[in-house]
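Hey L., structure's done. Input below.
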Amino acid sequence: MTENKLLIALKNDDKFALKSIYLEYKLPFLNFAKKFNISEDDSLDIYQDVIISLRENCMKGHLDNMKSELKTYLFSIGKYMIYKRLKEKQKLHLIDRVVESSNLNDDHFNEIDYSFNSKQKQIQEAFNKLGKQCQTILNLFYVRGFTLEEIVDELKYNNYNVAKSQKSRCLQKIKDIILNSK
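Output:
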């Protein structure tokens, strides 16, 4: 069955078409997901979410004029979901580190500071010299894992481009501070 016929069948809630697509792309997707350093269980969960998303989008008619191949479509959805999962895990890891460190006294924090390499110390010192607005946006983006869209909402910026240019200016300020301190 051609991809176009499969999508038409899927749009009509044909379970055979769904199973056919699921089985055909499962192994290639799991192999593709190995590149992203995620567990096989996570890869399988994501693949199942991709298939659900494909089915829902197809039934809503979003794929009626699809230009790419089905495999490309599935893998692009999957890649987005993998990135999202990795970002969530990074947030959880950062939260765990903050919770663990909240039980430490000041002596432990000093030990942590000394364990930074010289580049990390330079970045930390430059960050501390930034204004509050720059510290906030960089903290939201790099530490808390906010997207630029989420930063727009959080900081009440006018639009995405304002947040993007503000983040860019703040990064440039850090670079300038580091270059001028040498």
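Confidence is low (pLDDT under 50) at residues 98-115. Residues 11 and 30 are 25 Å apart (CA to CA).

-- N.
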